[in-house]
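U., I forgot to send this yesterday:
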Amino acid sequence: MRVVIQRVRHCAVLINSSSKTEIKDGLLVLVGIVDGDTNDDIKWLVNKILNLRIFDDENGVMNNSVLDIAGELMVVSQFTLYASTREGNRPSYIRAAKPDIAVPIYEMFVKACQESGLAVETGQFGADMKIELLNDGPVTIIIDSNSKE
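Result:
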């Protein structure tokens, strides 16, 4: 499982030009899923995301987590995170899990985020979404559960 996390001042997901969901200060979490991802991957990633100290404290130092600031989460499925560009110019998405595998894992990921007590909004799995955001910092971090050390 791979995530791209962006610290945002606000974020909205639009489907068919109308706003579906939005958050204020918090994190946009783009989630890519592959076959073989497990509940352990979900737990590890959600714990890492919730506790990343990437928000400023009173001294302007990145010392606070999204939990510390009672921020919000926008979780959006993003199969293109597993694009392979090794050959040719057209990305291959063969590594990304098919919907029958990805949807239940995505839903478990969202549920694990909700268990934090933070406000959690989502995109719509498989939809053509437009995401409006104001990246704060900018702070953008990529984490892959296959790179746990």
